[in-house]
Amino acid sequence: MQSFEWVDFQFPTRTYVQRNSTHNMGTLIRDLGERPFVFSIQEEIRSEDEYQILLTGLKKQMSGCIIYDEFHSLPSYDQMDSASYFLRRSGADIIIAIGGRHTFQVARSLAMLARNEVYAGELKQKRFPLKKAPMPLVCIPTGLTIGEESSPDMFGYDSSTGDFFYHRDHRLYPEAILVDPNLVSNPSRNELVRQGMAVIAASVESILSRKSNEITGSLSLKAIELVVRSINTLMTDQANQGARYNLAVASVVCGMAASSTALGLSYSIAQSVHLVTGMDFYSALNILLPHVMEYNLTSSASKYVQIARALEQDIHDISIIEAAIKAVEGVRKLYLDLNVAQRLSDFEIAKSTLGEIAELAAEYPLIKNTPRDMERNEIETILITAY
Question: In what residue span(s) does the Alcohol dehydrogenase iron-type/glycerol dehydrogenase GldA domain sit (predicted)?
Answer without folding.
Answer: 12-181
